[in-house]
Amino acid sequence: MSAPALPSLTRVYGTRARVELREFFRQRESVVFTLAFPVLLLLALGAVLDYDLGAGVGFPQYFMAGVITAGIVGASLQNMAIHIAGERSDGTLKSLAGTPMPASAYFAGKVVQVLAVAVATIVLLLGVGVLVYGIDLPSGGDWLTFAWVSVLGAAACTLLGIAVSTLCRTGRSASATVTPIALVLEFVSGVFLPFDQVPGWLQDVAAVFPVKWLAQGLRSVFLPDALAAQEPAGSWELGRVALVLGAWCVLGLVLCVLTFRWQDRDTR
Amino acid sequence: MVADGRPRPGDPLDPDAAISVRGLVKRYGDRTAVDGLDLDIRRGEIFALLGPNGAGKTTTVEVLEGYRRRDGGEVRVLGVDPARGGRRWKAELGIVLQSGAGDSQLSVRELLEARASYYADPRDPGEVLELVGLTERAGARGRTLSGGQRRRLDVALGIVGRPRLLFLDEPTTGFDPEARRQFWALIRSLRDLGTTMLLTTHYLDEAEALADRVGVLARGQLAEVAVPTALGGRGSAPAVVSWTEDGARRTAETATPTAFVRDLAARFPGEVPDLAVSRPTLEDVYLKMIGGPDE
Question: What is the predicted ipTM?
Fold first, then answer.
């Protein structure tokens, strides 16, 4: 008996990518929460705060790196933790696990979703930044730094989000757990205010987590090199940014492989 | 019970069966949910698993589907050990979970098309919609469906891959009587297409209407396996004849109700007053078998 061949991986990956994009962009709450929130943040804080950070840099220019960090963390860490926890508690994952869809296709779909949401958020933020605040866009080699820092940061946060989703019983509890954690990490990582205004011991705490390094890498993209002197190390430390974010990717991947479940804990 | 095709403990696995189970054991902590289950389900058969809540129905089915690890015994589903079933094996199965297929922003048609694309030889999504009676709701988002429509969507997702073996875990919970009749017609048409089905249900009339054989699970063991009309010795159980005589209700148990009624008729000039002949219903034998309400 020769059974017909299963569909190719590419075809199933394509299906999953389309499914994930529709699932995200059709859900008003997630679009508002993930896409519009950073934009509102940029408009609100940009209107209220007005520092001069030296070297002719105003707050909106400084805040671009921060708000893009918040956008990437929202698209990856928060999005994955909340929606995968939801899909686990409502039976979506269990149902998929009973089909011949390969597990890798599920994660490929999520990666496409995170990339699409992150790129949309970044484009939106750059547009508002240029049109409303006249910020300077990165130039030349900064774009390359922008790309690798964003991709590496998003990858680390996506993997962490998938791992965290396993700790939470429902999408709602994931939202209540992850959102405050993300906000606190962003706060102590110099997303909402200049990092050198964060107390020294908090800077040390922040340096353990990936958000700080993502924000620092993005500051190197949006700020003139003269401001590198205000960083704790006196430089942008791009090598260390790559190292720490890469390490978090490895740790996140290990956590995912060890903890990921297709169904609720009590149904083993 | 050999005539009903029920294996005995220690029999070898049946390589021709759609499902073959020997000595299945599943424990949760120190509670034994399934305690030495032996069962063969033939290809093309509809087998209904009955039992009260907590009897081990869903546990058994989920071991067969590959969702849960067993603690003992041997299991083959379409010739494969579910604990080692890969993509190719899963492509032969259709699974309708008790918990349903989850929430989604996709339309009914999009959900079916996505699901179909995971399979080697899927059914046409449009035909499946027709089969489950959801054609009018094809464009509706999953979350806007009524309870019964959602369940039909679950069934549609379960059959779109053209499974050889379909698991249905309490598929009609929440259906109104008409929807259940329609669902039964759907199951019969799938049987006519050669699909083997393992159905768990709380509804005895559903088991009686659909199943070739029923198995009653009680306390993690199969109390009995039989065709629905013979369960619990129903077919040959004494009939109860009752009538009214001298102003009092009289009843008698008899193995030969026809002869009994003939004699009775001779004693009365016309109709026997309030004559009734009854056999135990499936519900009577079932309740007796599971030993009353849940432990």
Answer: 0.87
